[in-house]
Amino acid sequence: MTVLRSRDNPQVKRWAKLARESRLRRSEGRALIEGPHLVAALLSQNLKPAAVMATEAALGRPEIADLVHRSGLAPVILSESAFKSIADAEAPPGLAAEIVIPSLRREGARVFLEGVQDAGNVGAIVRSAAAFGAGAVILDRACADPWSPKALRAGMGGHFSLQVLQVDALQAALESFAGRILCTVASGGQPLREADLAGRIGWIFGSEARGVSAGLQQKAATRITIPLAAGTESLNVAAAAAICLYEASVVSRASNAPSTPVSRS
């Protein structure tokens, strides 16, 4: 059994770059995922990795050996040192995979992100969007790379159940969206619980510091504010997105629920 031990091995160096360089991820349309949870999430959506990497110790764990078997690929075995060079997590899990960034098409709400620069926030929004039935998360170039290791960890597999797309600017994506567009503002908007959330909805969420820009606010049919307790300045953008997406999903489920037949005695 061959084990790649050197950090200078060409394959290992390329995977290390793929984990750290967004430019390489964009140019190749590939990314690196770490850990059994993300590999399992990928496989659960009938997506297959391009390569699987593992340490000998990790392959001795039945759950990881099973995931490698399910991938249908022979693993590339790395030494602990070589694996740490490609891993981003503080405690490397001993399992990683190279993936082709999926191009998915899903029905459901659209989430548009403008200038959300923290990768953890981007991943958390992807996770909420997937959990509440959105079809796509579309980000501008000012946002953190949604396929970075930190964003993938925060997304907890949500990236594999909806479309995640980064574009040069949001205007064209907004103009092509066949539905009503809402955006969140810190104050002065319609209270969320009073807003019409029925039908096909697109949400714009803005940067952590500035919120949605004035230009994109003009694209929205309605500006939404989440009422907060007195003395509270604002919500984290990921928390705000989760609340809005949850409220919209409640309305969507209610409108799609079968009507209860009237009993006639």
Characterise the protein shown here:
The chain has 265 residues and is α/β, with parallel strands linked by helices. It folds into two domains: 10-100, 60s Ribosomal Protein L30, Chain: A (2-Layer Sandwich); 110-255, SPOUT methyltransferase, trefoil knot domain (Alpha/beta knot, 3-Layer(aba) Sandwich). The protein is built from eleven helices and eleven strands. Helix 8 links the parallel strand 6 (136-140) and strand 7. Helix 3 packs parallel to helix 5. It is elongated, with a radius of gyration of 21 Å. Mean pLDDT is 93; it is low at 259-265.
> Using only CA atoms, what is the Rg?
21 Å
What is the percentage of strand-forming residues?
A: 15-25%
Q: Quote the distance from N terminus to C terminus.
A: 75 Å
SS-based structural class?
alpha/beta
Reported for the largest beta sheet, the result is:
7 strands, parallel
Uncertain runs with pLDDT below 50, 5 residues or more? 259-265
Q: What's the CATH C level of the largest domain?
A: Alpha Beta
Strand order across the largest sheet:
7-6-5-10-8-11-9
Supply the number of structural domains.
2
Helix amount, in percent?
25-40%
Order of helices and strands: HHEHEHHEHEEHEHEHEEEHEH
Tally of individual helices = 11
CATH level-four homologous superfamily name of the largest domain: SPOUT methyltransferase, trefoil knot domain
Shape: elongated
| Overall average pLDDT | 93
Total beta-strand segments: 11
What name is given to the CATH topology of the largest domain? Alpha/beta knot
Q: Assign the CATH architecture of the largest domain.
A: 3-Layer(aba) Sandwich
